[in-house]
């Protein structure tokens, strides 16, 4: 993996760059649609590539490890071959899901023991076997195995948790360096900065990670219950320290406004289930604000879903039609909302990149941020 | 509406024709995907037009009358404008749904009184108001309001039911002739032959309907529980009598084999929920047989879903991937299976048309019918 830092905003820490992987290039800042189980929910691969213009998608290690399982993924020749997405893929490390989805979970020095939420079967994730699993899935970017500390954790817990995450990181790096991709292309490993909302822990974590000289670095454990201002503060603390010549990935974030603020603070990569999950619940993000498509007010609004939108759904279908589809529980409603929201998120980061390059990022952000946050 | 009978098979009653409506032409024999609530489930309009190559779709009067309701449809300028499907649309008359979905239904000479399955509200469908409703929906082809007699009805019930359907037909025709399309294009009205499995009733019904000189005629009340051989026998009885120079529509049928047999017996138009509903349940129809995608045997079959299929999904995704999507309940599974099955049904009738024109329909049917019926 290669990262070229192409532009630095003179007014802020915003940056534009280019990541090159064996499955193609990624222009940053970028948003990565979440394909938890090997599919972005309700979206066909050609729609993802051509209409939404996604450049990289996520897969979730926890889910893919359970189903279809490593045997199938290995026989397929990795996730790209399995799901027909031939551009870059990033996998998380499963740690977050073990703590949010799995049953009977128990943390030890060795790793995390848990029972599958699918069939109750018992499993263990360790730094070593998670590296092996991500090798088998075959993502272009692999994430280190960590404990995602809750946003409201006490200092003493957050510190103990960070200690463990740091020991696990060393084990991840060792195993990663001892192994190779099973399918002949290159994979990169990103460590994850934890430390909850405590500046000194975040600082220490960022310094430790900076010393590892990884190909890219991630900020985890944010947008997990802490106040938004705390999140922005932690991003600032961390990005002071993380190497400027490596991409920075803010995990699991967030609203359009969160993304614009984080870009201004030097973040390059994002993922979030919000555009797809909220879309399936009828919430549409647009340049002019947020629409609840179940609202009666759209019942006879025959204007396009989003006259300024970039997706084919935006001008093909009307608000009244989409509202009807939601009210009568048609699957097509979920498809339309998911495509629209993802296309909007990809438009947003592309536009951000344009303005970073044009040198007016902060002005543009100020001009748009109230609009994208407004409830319509 | 215009119907041009283009080819008659010399070996059988199979025919190829061309229907012309104000929303475009339809080559027969044709299969019409079902868009119950104004959307074909899990399928985008451009997929329906370009990938599946549907030439006409159905809307269900009962559902559309309840939601979005006539006010919205009228304000939209009819169903075509509302759902962005600009090719021909056919609407059923709601009779079948009143008897299969609605609550507290009661049949009188006047019409059918029922309570909505959505909110329990009370409604009446009469021959007159159903004509008005179909005018407001704005389908190119409207169906007469009838009672769909159950497949296992006693003779005396079937006869009484047919008497009512015939009186209702006259009221439908009167109302239809007194009214006009609200949107400026032409609409046609198709009467429906009932009579259960009783040849004399079917004959009488067909003769009565033939005398009405409608622009097309339908055969209803089949594939509703009677033996398949009875269905074929009824089609033969009816098609002896129905005018040859008008399209014949067999309502709600059926399996690929049913369609091939009915084409051989002179049917031109079909609709059925089978490709979409069975698809959503994991059943795929192909040229080589029927696949249950949930079956373990596909778990590591990395071959295309259908190497001979005409849809983009057929060669883009593998059987193993589609099986995985079904097992983990991904919406994309429903999308893929629905598109595949509809594309297969449209391929089947297009291929049938080709062979009618080539003069070898019956031979071709014999060569394919065991294959399409086989469980793989």
Automatic annotation (TrEMBL), chains A, B:
Substrate binds at residues 92-96, 146, 194, 221. The keyword Amino-acid biosynthesis does not apply. One of its GO terms (biological process) is tRNA queuosine(34) biosynthetic process. The keyword Aminoacyl-tRNA synthetase does not apply. Residues 252-258, 276-280 are annotated as: RNA binding. GO terms for cellular component: cytosol. Its EC number is 2.4.2.29. GO terms for molecular function: tRNA-guanosine(34) queuine transglycosylase activity. InterPro entries: ArchSynthase1/Queuine_TRR, TGT, TGT-like_sf, tRNA_ribo_trans-like. Keywords: Glycosyltransferase, Queuosine biosynthesis, Transferase, tRNA processing. It catalyses: 7-aminomethyl-7-carbaguanine + guanosine(34) in tRNA = 7-aminomethyl-7-carbaguanosine(34) in tRNA + guanine. The active site is at residues 92, 271. Residues 12-371 form the tRNA-guanine(15) transglycosylase-like domain. Pathway: tRNA modification; tRNA-queuosine biosynthesis. Pfam families: TGT. Belongs to the queuine tRNA-ribosyltransferase family. NCBIfam families: Q_tRNA_tgt, tgt_general. Homodimer. Within each dimer, one monomer is responsible for RNA recognition and catalysis, while the other monomer binds to the replacement base PreQ1. Catalyzes the base-exchange of a guanine (G) residue with the queuine precursor 7-aminomethyl-7-deazaguanine (PreQ1) at position 34 (anticodon wobble position) in tRNAs with GU(N) anticodons (tRNA-Asp, -Asn, -His and -Tyr). Catalysis occurs through a double-displacement mechanism. The nucleophile active site attacks the C1' of nucleotide 34 to detach the guanine base from the RNA, forming a covalent enzyme-RNA intermediate. The proton acceptor active site deprotonates the incoming PreQ1, allowing a nucleophilic attack on the C1' of the ribose to form the product. This is Queuine tRNA-ribosyltransferase. It comes from Dysgonomonas macrotermitis. The lineage of its organism: Bacteria, Pseudomonadati, Bacteroidota, Bacteroidia, Bacteroidales.
């Amino acid at each position: 993996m290669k990262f070229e830092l192409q532009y630095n905003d003179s007014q802020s820490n915003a940056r534009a760059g280019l990541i090159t992987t064996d499955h193609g290039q990624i222009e940053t800042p970028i948003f990565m649609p979440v394909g938890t189980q090997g599919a972005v929910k309700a979206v066909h691969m050609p729609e993802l590539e051509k209409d939404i213009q996604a450049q990289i998608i996520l897969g979730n290690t926890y889910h893919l490890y359970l189903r279809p399982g490593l045997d199938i993924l290995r026989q397929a020749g990795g996730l790209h071959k399995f799901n027909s997405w031939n551009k870059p893929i990033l996998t998380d490390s499963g740690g977050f899901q073990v703590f949010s989805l799995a049953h009977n979970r128990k943390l030890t020095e060795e790793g995390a023991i848990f029972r599958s939420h699918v069939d109750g079967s018992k499993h263990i994730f360790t730094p070593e076997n998670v590296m092996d699993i991500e090798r088998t899935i075959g993502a272009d970017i692999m994430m280190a195995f960590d404990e995602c500390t809750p946003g409201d954790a006490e200092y003493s817990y957050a510190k103990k948790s960070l200690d463990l995450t740091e020991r696990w990181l060393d084990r991840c790096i060792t195993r990663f360096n001892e192994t190779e991709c099973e399918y002949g292309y290159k994979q990169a490993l990103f460590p994850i900065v934890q430390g909850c909302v405590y500046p000194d822990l975040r600082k220490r974590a960022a310094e430790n990670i900076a010393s590892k000289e990884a190909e890219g670095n991630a900020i985890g454990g944010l947008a997990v219950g802490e106040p938004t201002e705390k999140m922005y503060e932690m991003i600032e603390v961390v990005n002071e320290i993380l190497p400027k010549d490596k991409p920075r990935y803010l995990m699991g974030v967030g609203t359009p406004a969160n993304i614009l603020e984080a870009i201004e603070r030097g973040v390059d990569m994002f993922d979030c289930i919000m555009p797809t999950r909220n879309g399936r619940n009828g919430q549409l993000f647009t340049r002019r604000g947020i629409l609840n498509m179940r609202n009666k007010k759209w019942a006879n609004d025959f204007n396009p879903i989003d006259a300024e939108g970039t997706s084919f759904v935006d001008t093909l279908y009307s608000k009244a039609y989409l509202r009807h589809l939601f009210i009568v529980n048609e699957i097509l409603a979920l498809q339309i909302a998911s495509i629209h929201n993802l296309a909007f998120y990809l438009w947003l980061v592309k536009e951000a990149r344009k303005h970073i390059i044009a040198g007016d990022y902060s002005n543009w952000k100020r001009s748009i941020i109230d609009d994208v946050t407004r409830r319509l």
